[in-house]
Design brief:
The chain is an all-alpha fold. The protein has seven helices and no strands. The N terminus and C terminus are likely disordered. Bound molecules: zinc ion. It comes from Mikania micrantha.
């Protein structure tokens, strides 16, 4: 309840009905369960959620969860509703599987690039390319001249 009042107080239009009450053509009473999450300036958010889930189901769900979790729940419903309207078959699962395939492809690409890097760096060491000492400071020639003077350096050439 306190959370709702705080949200209502911070609303840009304290007297305007929320997007849900405006759409449902009813009076937006104080403590309206939709009001903190469906501001009048974003009517699409409510119409999407209403089309997919139904206002009474959303109201029931919001009343069943803790007030501090309601904003996350509404954002999740709004995301899913928008995805479901764009893709009636898969909804947000479509986006998730596209991203999962992308992660797998990029992981393979990264593995291949890392393998290339290891191959190139070992070739460079064989050719004793002067650049390798700059890129690989573990090479003792790249260390400051006095490094290891007071330190037992365990290097076998
Ligand atoms: Zn309302």
């Amino acid at each position: 309840m306190q959370q709702i009042n705080k949200h209502m107080a911070s609303s840009a239009h304290p007297n305007a009905p929320c997007a849900a009450c405006k759409f449902l053509r009813r009076k937006c009473i104080q403590g309206c369960v939709f009001s903190p999450y469906f501001p009048p300036e974003d009517p699409i958010k409510f119409t999407n959620v209403h089309k997919i889930f139904g206002a009474s189901n959303v109201s029931k769900l919001l009343n069943e969860i803790e007030p501090h979790q309601r904003e996350d729940a509404v954002n999740s419903l709004a995301y899913e509703a928008e995805a479901r309207l764009k893709d009636p078959v898969y909804g947000c699962v479509g986006a998730i599987s596209v991203l999962q395939r992308q992660v797998l492809r990029l992981q393979k690409e990264l593995d291949a690039t890392n393998a290339d890097l290891i191959r190139f760096s070992s070739n460079q060491n064989i050719l004793t390319n002067p650049q390798s000492s700059r890129n690989y400071p573990q090479n003792p020639h790249a260390l400051p001249p006095n490094y290891g003077a007071n330190y037992s350096w365990n290097y076998n050439p």
